[in-house]
Amino acid sequence: MPRTLRPGQRSELYVVDVLTGEHRLVFTSLDVLFEAPNWTPDGDLIVNGNGKLFRVADELVEIELGGVPDINNDHVVSPDGSTVYVSADDGHLYAVPLAGGPGRRVTNDRGPGFHHYLHGVSPDGTTLAYIGLEPGITNVWTIPAAGGTDVQVTDDEHADDGSEYGPDGKWIYFNSERAGHAQLFRIAGDEVEQLTDDERVNWFPHPAPHGSSIAYVSFPPGTEGHPADIEDVRIRLLTSEGIRELTTLFGGQGTMNVPSWSPDSTAFAYVAYPLDVS
Q: What family does the Swiss-Prot or TrEMBL record give for this protein (predicted)?
């Protein structure tokens, strides 16, 4: 079932300018718990909510998904802007024309216990990076965007998530508990590099299209997984000069699950879920 807002809660979509640090409130909803903002190449923002996908304008404008089952909060747009790839609640990935039209299933049947969770598309648009969930195990996988043979990228007992291509197409960025708790990594073939090493629980690395920095979500120490409605969730930027704190919010799951940078790398989007306790 899609997530819903709690009494007194709202969804707030922000865009932050990484040069000035200014946070601009773009859209608020008291009705729809929307999640996972990302951008089309021409600069439109899209989010998911209620099992559907929406463009953000003066209101949420539904994108026709062409018969695809209800979706979760993992969706990416092809580099040419023609296609949106989504993770559906039936455990499969689908390709849908962004202008509307029939959906096409991309993924293969790997048994009833296997689920696909999409996080990235290669810069040339040919390959999708996803998390394969088997009972008790998550690993990074890839599959041709046109459909074809899956390739398993990681193969260990540590929980991996958030697999996303870097702008050079060589590295796949992801978070993993192989360091004891979730930290950020990147992998290319047999080469693995750890990118963060601190006491906080770090998720969903999003490399800027121009390669200048990595935006990510940081949970308090001791957090298990990436739950919703957590205080002291931080949006951070990892640069060549170190970690830059951008904001602290009430949120977590849904705040920034998918590639969230603007096409020109000057800004990225996130969602907060403030709760009026009064």
A: Belongs to the TolB family.
